[in-house]
Amino acid sequence: MSKISLIIQREYITRVKKKSFIVMTIIGPILFAAMMVLPGWFASMEDTESKNIAVIDQTGKYNKRIKDTEYLKFSWLNQQDAGTIAQDYQDKGYTAYLVIEDDLLQKPDAAKIYSESQITIDVKDHIARNLEKYLENEKLNSYQIDGLDAIIKDIHSVDIKLKTIKLSEDGSEKESSTELVMIAAIIFAMMIYMFVLIYGMQVMRGIMEEKVSRIVEVIVSSVKPFQLMMGKIIGIALVALTQFMLWVILTVSIVSVLHAVFASDASTFTANNQVEMLGATGGQPTDAQVSEFAAGFNNIIDKVLSLDLIGSLVLFVFYFLGGYLLYASLFAAIGAALDNEADSQQFVMPVMMPLILSIYVAMAAFRNPTGDIAVWFSMIPFTSPVVMMARIPFQPPIWQIIVSMLLLIGTFILTTWFAGRIYRTGILMYGKKVSYKELWKWFKYSGR
Amino acid sequence: MMFLEAKRVVKKYANHLALNEVDLQVPANSIYGLLGPNGAGKTTLIRIINQITGPDSGEIIFNGRTLQSNDVQRIGYLPEERGLYKKMKVGEQAIYLARMKGLSRHDAIKKLKYWFEKFEIQPWWDKKVEELSKGMQQKIQFVVTVLHEPELLIFDEPFSGFDPINANLLKQEILQLKENGATILFSTHNMGSVEELCDHITLINQSKTILNGQIDQIRQNYKDNLIKLDFIGDANVISAKLKDNFAIENFEKVNGHQTAFVKMLHDSTINSLINEVINDIEIVGLQEVLPTMNDIFIKVVEQSNLSKTQK
Question: Residue A275, exposed/middle/buried by CB under 10 A (0-12, 13-18, 19+)?
Answer without folding.
Answer: middle
